[in-house]
Amino acid sequence: MGKLNVLVAGSTGYIGVQLIKHLCAHTKINIKYLCGNSSVGKKISLYDKTLIKYKLPRIVKFNKKYLFDVDIVFTALPNGEAQILSNLLLPNNLLIDLSADFRITNSSVYKKFYHIMHKSKSNIKKSIYFLPEINKKNINKYKIISCPGCYPTSILIPLVPLLKRKLINKNNIIIDSKSGYSGAGRGVHQKYKNHNLYESLSSYGVGFHRHNSEITQEFSKISKKIIYNFTPHLTPMFRGILSSIYLDLPEGISAKKILSFLKKEYKNREFVKFEKLNKPLSTNSVINSNNCLLSICETRYKNRIVLFSAIDNLIKGGAGQAIQNMNIYFGFKENLGLK
Predict the structure, then answer these.
(1) How confident is the model over 267-323, as pLDDT tens digits?
(2) Less packed terminus of the chain by CB within 10 Å, N or C?
(3) 48: how many CB neighbours lie within 10 A of its CB?
(4) Residue 150 is a catalytic residue
(5) Which CATH number does the domain housing residue 207 bear?
(6) How many contiguous H segments (helices) and E segments (strands) does the chain have?
């Protein structure tokens, strides 16, 4: 197979730039078009100086005629825009979406959480929500790949196998997640200009954060009776997510057994890593990687543990996962472009 031609829509955002950096390191990819709106005519290296060494096209405004020239379309656009673009896809195009546009399979639920009427309901059935570590479906049957959100990635990787095997109680799961401000996009500086963004910690979306719809959807595939509370926080660091997940254990299940099970579950998954029992972790251990790092810690209560999960929100929670999914789709080595 020769190189695949790629179009990146939304190329200048934090996720878009990260995606381009990894695509430049991918031996099977040729970046044909970089698309934007306010940035038309500019070089992408203006947004990240490390890209100056690559011969990349200048940013252009998206035109549907470009779809004739590309195999893959990556969309790192505001919610709602990938839906519109999806209606223009040609039979030879694969769409890999990094927004929430095809994560939710029920369009009514999507509207409830994202306050947008879905503009491509017919394409929802042609799409697949794909978290590579837990999804066993045949990705090649679909023409739209929806990449999971950053918070759900850090939560679902450790919890889905534990819930399936009934190794944790499902009626009192507490998820406390903290993210670098890059997760809110380039507009975060304006949005939080009066919140002392760089020196404070802020909770937000309490009880109703958009990613609740995604987490609930995936949990419901296991059981409709899972009770959890998810609270996200914005931190003064640029990137990284640390999810602290408080879990009650059934009788006879120990923290050591939980760790042993997860290690066995993910022994063949390159991007899931583990700390030793009772060793807390830091986002510093995952920055600039596509890894999800897990740690299990005992508490002073015999039947309660804290499960820590750390990812880089721009890579495993975004661009890296998109490339990982692309690699799986085309049968490339899963780590190609991600080392």
Answers:
(1) 999 999 999 999 999 999 999 999 999 999 999 999 999 999 999 999 999 999 999
(2) N
(3) 15
(4) yes
(5) 3.30.360.10
(6) 9, 14
53 falls within a domain = yes
Looking from the CA of 165 toward its CB, the CA atoms found within 13 Å total 14
Tokens at 287, concatenated: 């920055």
pTM over 0.70: yes
Q: Count other Cβ atoms within 10 Å, centred on residue 302.
A: 11
CA 181 to chain centre: 15
Tokens for 27? Answer: 């031996």
Given the residues 35, 147, 150, 292, select the one marked as catalytic.
150
CATH number at residue 141: 3.40.50.720
Alpha carbons 324 and 338: distance in angstroms, whole number: 8
Position 220 confidence tier, pLDDT thresholds 50, 70, 90: very high
Angle between helices 150-164 and 255-265 (to 10 degrees): 110
User: How crowded is the C-beta side of 95, counted as CA atoms within 13 Å?
Assistant: 30
- Mean pLDDT to the nearest integer, 48-59: 96
